[in-house]
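>> received
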Amino acid sequence: MEPGPPLLLGHRGARASKSVPENTLASFDLALEHGGDGFEFDVRLTADKQAVVCHDPKHGRSTIARANSSRLADLPRLDEVLRRYGQRVFLDIELKVSGLESIVLAALRDHRPERGFVVSSFLPDVIMELKVRSAAVSTGIICDKTRQLATWRKLPIDYVIAEKSLVKLSLVEEIHATGRKLLVWTVNDVKSMRWLSRWGVDGIISDDTQRLVRTLKPASGKPS
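>> returned
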């Protein structure tokens, strides 16, 4: 059977667009306005156990893990993102730290995405903890090094989320042979977008959602 077209996903939203900050509702909205199928975003844990959207461990002068959420009022909350987008797009929810597992699973029970999702992390222990708590949750391991990629078969995952330089056709075939799916990041050049699509990867994550959509779904792309 021929593979379907890949999901076209924004990396932290429409990260290439300088007019809006990454990992914000405005950036997520822009990725979807460009015609994307969804987006990847990062989640961290505050001192008062709130799940907030931010890539870096610090926001302004505040270290997120040591700050109460009241000091981080301008950061989106996980449940806010799930409520706003969960009924219409695919979500790649990256957990940057441990300790979020119960909060994320509760948020997913309250606002389960209807167009597909994966809870992903670089941290194998986070993936293991998620599966212990909920066998049904869709999980993915993020890999940016060869030695890290070598562990994917041993983990209870549904997705491998691999950095572009690690991906070969043989890897795509091997992952699909086990019934798992492959998302590739961060893919910003047209040539790579095209060959990954031809290879049948399940999703492509890009900073440049406008270029991604124009390249692989041109009928949906908006004119300059």
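>> The chain has a mean pLDDT of 95.
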